[in-house]
What we know:
The chain contains no helices and 9 strands. It is mostly beta strands and 106 residues long. A hairpin with a 5-residue loop joins strand 3 and strand 4. The N and C termini lie far apart (34 Å).
Amino acid sequence: MFGTYAGYSSGQGMAWVSSFGSISDGTADWAGGALIDELYRSPLGGWVLSIRGTHPNSGFEKVTIQGVDYQRSSATFSQHSGGTSWIFPTGTPFNVTGNIDVVFRS
Length: 106
């Protein structure tokens, strides 16, 4: 590990992140109900969204976390073994304890 992560990981996403946190609805309705494997702030900067399966770079235009909008177009998109990820280079969501609302908007 490179440092402290915050948010949620099922442990099934990117290989170097083990499971932590929890999620109440772990599905991405905008991706056919795909399981959300990772939604966390990275100690390397920015934050990561990773869902199970191969999906296109579409389905949502922005993500609102703690009242802050993050545009999908600003994220680095990748498809990897068993999953699809968006790495958002800026922002510090998941920096509080307790429940955090995450809303995907088209």
